[in-house]
Structure formats: C-alpha cells, structure tokens
Amino acid sequence: MAITARPAPGEPVIHLHGRQLPWLLEVHRSMFRTKPLGAFGAALVLLLVFAAVFADLIAGDPTDTNLRSILQSPSTEHWFGTDMIGRDIFDRVVHGARVSITVGVGAVGLGTMVAIVMGTLGAMRGGVLDIVIQRFVDAWIAIPWLVFLLAAMTILQPGVGSIILVLALGISFNNSRVVRGAVLSVMAQPYLEAARSLGATDGRLIVKHIVPNIMAPVIVVATLGLGNVILAEAALSFLGFGIPPPTPAWGGMLSGTARDYMYIAPWMMIFPGIAITLTVFGFNMYGDALRDLLDPRLRGSR
Amino acid sequence: MTEYVVRRLLAMIPTFFIVSVIVFSMVRLIPGDVVDIMVENYQYADDKEQLREQLGLNESVPVQYLTWVSGIVRGDFGESLWTGRTIMDELRYRLPLTLQLGVVSLALTVLIGIPIGILSAVKQDTAADYTARSFSILNLAIPDFWFATMVIVLPALWWQVNVSQGWVPFFENPFQSMGAILLPAIILGLSRSASVTRMTRAMMLEVLRQDYIRTAQSKGLGAFQVVSRHAVRNALIPVVTVLGLQVPAVLGGSIIMESIFNLPGTGRFMLDSIQQRDYPLLQATTMVFTVFVMFTNLMVDIAYGFLDPRIRYA
C-alpha cells in the first residue's frame, strides 16, 4: 500500500486555523481564573474598544463648538467640562479613543505583518539577507526613537495615515527580532523536518507550519506594542508633530493653545491624560498576563 | 579584552557613517527650506541666492555632506544657520544639562526599579506583588508629558507654588542645579523604571528556582542572606542590558522634559532646530545622541564581562 501524505477521502482534516479560536478562548478563561491584574487589563481594553466603536452613540459631536459655554468646569451637563471654544471634553475624550485605537491597530497590524515577513525571511534564508536586516535593526535601536519619529513626521506631514506608517516602521523593526527568534526555534522542530521530507514547499511550510506556530509570541509583543504605540502617538501629537487639530487626539488635547488655559481650566488637561494612562495600563497588564500564559520564554524581555 | 574593545570601536566606524548618511538625508528631506523661512517670515535678507551662498547651502548636496563629515572628524560641527554661533560652543553649554538630567534619571530608574522588582519576585503572587507590579506598570502608562504638566499646574493652582526653577551649571551652584532637574529626573526615572522592574522580577523568579539557592537555604542561611548574596547578584546581570536600552528612551524623554520645564538643554535645542530647519544644528544634536547611544551599548557589553566571568570575549 502506498503511503500518501493526503488524508483519505472522508477522513477529517485538522486545520490549525480552525483550532485557534478555542485555543485563545481557553487562554482567556485561565487568565480570568489566575491573573486578576491581567483580567483587569483586559476589561480596560474592552472598555476602550467599546468607546471607540460606539463613540457616536455615547458622546456628541467632538468638534461642535459652543461659544456660550466655554471653559466650564465639570458639571452634570458637561461631565468633563468644556474647552476654550466650548467643545465638550467628554465628547472629545470618547472620540479620542477611536483615534487611538485606529492608530494603535493600524500601526501594530501593519508593523507586525512586516515584522513577520522580515523575521521569517531572515531566519529561513539566512546569509547576507539576514545580516543586512539585522544591521538595519541595530541601527534603528541606536537612533533615539523620538528623534526619528519627529524627523519622519516632519517629512511626511502630520496626519493619521503618516503616523500609522511611521509607527508601523518602528514596530516592524522591534518585533522582527522576536519573530526571527521564534522562526529559528520552530525550524529546529522535528515536525518541520517531517513536513519538509514529505515534500512541502517553502511557501507551504511558512503558511501551514511556521506562521501558526509563532503566533503566541507575536500576539504577546503585538499587545504590548499597542500600549507603546498609543503612548508614542500621544507624545507626538503633544509636541505638535502627530495628529493635527481639530481631530480629537488625546495627546493633541494637551498641546498648543490648550496649554495657555491649563491654569484656568485644568480639567482640559486632566481627563485626556487619564484616558491615555488607563489605556496604556490596560494593554500592558493584558499583554503581561498573555505573555505569562502563552510564552513563558519571553517573560522579562524589553 | 583590550582586543575586543578595539574591535568593537573599529566596527563602530561603518555604523557611524551609515548613521551620518541617514541623519544627513533625513534632515534634507524635511519640507520647507530654511532660506525661504528666513526671507519670507523674517526678512533676513533681500536676495535668496545671496543668503544661500552666505550659509553654504549653494553647494551640491554631496559636497555639503563631505564638508559636514570632514568637519565632525576634526571636531567641528559648523555654525547654527540662525544665530551664527558655533555649534560646539552651544553644545558645551547645553550638553551638561542633558547629561546631568540623563544620569540622575537613570540612577533613579535603578533605585526605583530594582528594589520593587526584587520585592515583587520574593513575594510572588501576593498582595505586595500585585501592588508593586501595578505601581510599575502605572509609571509606564502615565505619559511623561502629561505627568510633567500636572506637576507644574496642580501645585500652582492649589498652593500658588512655582516648581520649575532656572538651571545653572552644576559647579556654579550644585543645589540650584540639581533642584532644577530633580522633578523632570524623577518623572523620567519613574517612567523608565517599569522595564527594569519587569526584568528584575523575571530574572529573580528564575534564579530563585535554581539548585544553589536551595543549597544556600539548606545550609541554614537566612532569607535575607539568600536573596541579597546569592539571588540578586546573579539575577541582575541581564538587567544591565535593559538599563542600556533605557538610554535612548531617556534621551527622547529629555526632549519633552526640557521643553515643559523650560530647561536650556540639548533636547529642546533639537526640537527648536527641527522647527527652524537649522540643518547643521539638527544634524549635530542627532549625531551626538546617536553616538552616545552607540557608546553606552558598547559599555553595557563590556560591563557584562565584569559582572559575569562566564562570558568570554572571543
């Protein structure tokens, strides 16, 4: 009887992709049982996503000015007060969640995809390509990140698109190392040897065996990266190099002309800052717990 | 050892040139020409071409690059396009502030991060551990620019106190000098300490499970002795790497702190030079920062050899 690599007709085919949902569900169930801080982080993240998705239902128009009610302190009518041109701070903070999530998911998603390509190519091809990628990563780490971001944002002009692009570049360099390490360790596994000797092409190896098996560390660094990216976007918008007004970006709400009013209307400053803090706190707590559960080897890196 | 250091220093030369090309071209890519800004916004001169020639910007880009690099090799960063002062003189005044801020921030990072990390590992999964970790992640999560703003605004609102002071060189008046940078240094130190805490905790947890720790305990040593003499010393070696990684972050943070606290340091100088398109100034400050990071990376690698005799520089 000939040995075939293909399953016989009628035999169930096990897809790794199909197993991923219950696998992740299981991880979260044990997080809620054993990692109270991680569960708290996850709840904060969920709250943020909720605010971002339903911003239009929860809050009013963030750019709606009302010159009759400027610089009002927090009240039942304006929960977080109003700014110097009568915009409601609560509306702006809620809509700011949407901006932060867009930038975070965009930059981390794009950056992680590039990191997977860079890391996988480097690890599988090796040789000159690997060395060149590694030297570029070294150079990236040597340049103080804020200096690079400021220059890059000045070149590209401030805006949501360019900030996603620039931050994605940073994410891809940082995370390509993790991907490279994970791919190298998968390549040393017997199952990869087995797949290869069954005649699997490189493309099939990558899609079916390598990528599904490096997902755990990738999910962890991506979650932690979301917090960093949101913080970086806030810092850039604060310095006036990020998302230009009137878009309600949390960092931008603390900068520019708003600073002239910080002594008379401190609530203009307090609430966006709390929003950034809770968001970054949530992503880090959640990411740390994911790391403990998914990939103990990564613990403590960075 | 000496051979290793020499080889590492030699390897820095190509990296230095790569970085110099990146910095030079990045600065030229920034839209908005300095001569246009000078003539249109400030009426510095009547004739753009004449001004361009005066500033040395009429040369071709490769020539400008060569002039710049050969200047650096001779220790000459050129002159600011706006003030005409030599950048060396400016740096001589501004670098001490940034270095002082950086060193104090890093010292605070160690003093805050390591003890909390040790405590958190020794008391793993207790209330103390959860509190310590929440505290350190909170420090990471609070944006430094917001924290700094609050530290300036709230005392002024509540007690009419002005917390930002003028900076003077350290040797002129050490107390006033340290007083001016203390608050920004604490803010930077707190925000950077989280990574150090994380690494310390993780390494301590690993070390505390080693056989030699059990040996130390079973020969009757007290808990304090075991932790301080056997565990911490071995756990801290990788923490040095994480500390090295904080250097670029602290330099970035100094840009923000110096602008908020109104300190005349290198970071704020750099921010101004971006806005004014002061090419030589922006190139010089970026190069200084990058070379500084490259040297600290080297020092981290050398420090490894002293801390861990198992590491050999082959």
What is the fold's blueprint, element by element?
The complex is a heterodimer of chains A (302) and B (314).
Chain A: H1 16-34, H2 36-53, H3 55-58, H4 89-125, H5 127-142, H6 145-156, H7 160-187, H8 190-197, H9 202-213, H10 215-238, H11 250-253, H12 267-294
Chain B: H1 2-29, H2 34-42, H3 48-54, H4 61-73, H5 87-122, H6 127-141, H7 144-159, H8 174-207, H9 211-218, H10 223-235, H11 237-260, H12 266-275, H13 279-307
Helix pairs in contact in B: 1-13, 5-6, 5-8, 5-11, 6-8, 7-8, 7-11, 8-10, 8-11, 9-10, 11-12, 11-13, 12-13
Word description of this protein:
The complex is a heterodimer of chains A (302) and B (314). In chain A, 70% of the residues lie in helices and 0% in strands. Chain A has 302 residues and is an all-alpha fold. Chain A has a single domain, classed as MetI-like fold (Orthogonal Bundle). Chain B has a domain at 97-262: MetI-like fold (Orthogonal Bundle), CATH 1.10.3720.10. Chain B has helices at 2-29, 34-42, 48-54, 61-73, 87-122, 127-141, 144-159, 174-207, 211-218, 223-235, 237-260, 266-275, 279-307. Chain B is mainly α and 314 residues long. The mean pLDDT of chain B is 82. Helices cover 77% and strands 0% of the residues of chain B. Chains A and B meet through helix 5, helix 6, helix 10 and helix 12 of A and helix 1, helix 6, helix 7, helix 8 and helix 11 of B.
Describe the structure concisely for a colleague.
The complex is a heterodimer of chains A (302) and B (314). By secondary structure, chain A is mainly α.
Tags for this model:
heterodimer, A: 302 residues, mainly alpha, MetI-like fold, 70% helix, disordered C terminus, B: 314 residues, 77% helix, globular
